[in-house]
Amino acid sequence: MKPQTHPTLPEFDYIKPESLAEASQFLALHPDEARPFLGGTDIFVRMRDGFLVPKFLVDVKHLDGTDAIRFDPLVGLTIGAAVNMNRVIASPEVQKYYPLLAEACRSVASYQLRTRATIAGNLCNASPAGDTIGACLVLDGKLQIHGTACPRLETLSEFFLGPGKTTLKPGDIVTAVSLPVPPGGSAGTYLKLGRNKLSDLSIVGVTVLGSPAPSLPSGFRFRIALSSVAPIPLIAAEAEAALAEQAITSGSIHAAACLASEASTPIDDVRGSARYRKQMVRNLTEMALNQVWQKLQRQDAGR
User: Which domain holds residue 248?
Assistant: First the structure.
């Protein structure tokens, strides 16, 4: 068989509903044939490569406020499902209150692709390597979902079931990502290891968010999310608990990084071995925790 050197998209019908209710109903009636469509940065590639062959693409952009980004100082940030990542990065409220999210968005591919890519799409793809998933997890993100029954909120920590698998049911459409206001005095970072510095999927990704927490023995709370090292994006809960229970020192940070490495369950693939990934989880987690700890100390000294 002659190889196809210029693959093309398979034929499909483009559906543009007038409302979320209409879109949800159509998707529910064609669960095996229809796919919702936002930015298209993932689905078109998978269709081109033959991994997906949907009969219908249902355009859910610009429906009922999905193209809006809103901030309330009491409630937090709401990012419509159709808001592209460059708009998120440029938002003054995101830059002020959610710099970790902006940092994660900037790590995604190129500027041109980010004019199409969306955070909601990144989450719904459920790739263990998703760059913005870690930030949304440590920021306690929730998804606003329109289904055939009634709208609902779903905690992001319970959303992922496996690579490419989520709790979404036929007819469900994610309409927005909601993030509460981060704790006062918080600081974070996202460290991504790829085969090159630009536009590559992560071999290992580590997201850390730290904040003052006077009620804890250490006086600080750290959230740690790992990507590309388990079937689903992983919260390093034992590492977080260890940092909460003892003074923050170079020793306790190293010990927490080792716990994060032990929690990871990576596989061997063309981008890296499982052994290498586990070692890099330890190294990147230790580096990220040290960076965030230094930021927290500088903020405390500046008060």
Answer: 187-301
